[in-house]
Design goal:
194 residues; mainly alpha; 3-stranded antiparallel sheet; 8 helices; 3 strands; 65% helix; elongated; disordered N terminus; disordered C terminus
Amino acid sequence: MTDINSTADRITSLPAGESSPVDADIQRLTAVVELIFFAYRDFTGEADAVLKKFDFGRAHHRVLHFVTWRPGLRVADLLEILKITKQSLARVLKQLVDRGFILQEAGEADRRERRLYPTAAGRRLAEQLRALQTRRIAGALGEIEPPAQAAAVQFLLALTTSVNRSAIEQSLANAGIGVPEPANAIGRDRSRTK
């Protein structure tokens, strides 16, 4: 509590209406953090309501999403995409398989490999969830000009870890979304292919 109180004391000791540049930057960035929380809440809210009818949560949604739009995905690749433990994935995957939304099959080349496919029910649910979220994204993008749309994609990409960035950029490129170079490309490897 000492740190919180000392920060509050420091802020309130400034003349009325003034804040230090550092405090103003922190306040601005905190407001953006909150904006991301609110945007995520609203982006996931409608899908959460649908998932609740099946006693599923966001982990089920993520698994169903990637399996549906990348049929034949290996379990190992899904673990890499989601960055979750084997135990967490096993629990969610078991529920989706047991309820008839996903099929697990042995790989053709390596029978130990497990490949994942959506069932017809899985595709229908994934499509329903995607429709809700793409409608929200389309509405949001429709409210801003094309340069701002590109900046929004660039901003979201910049929030991802650099470890995954090239795979994400490739996925965007496959969808026909070009990722512009940042305005201040200092420190960024410009030799990477998009």
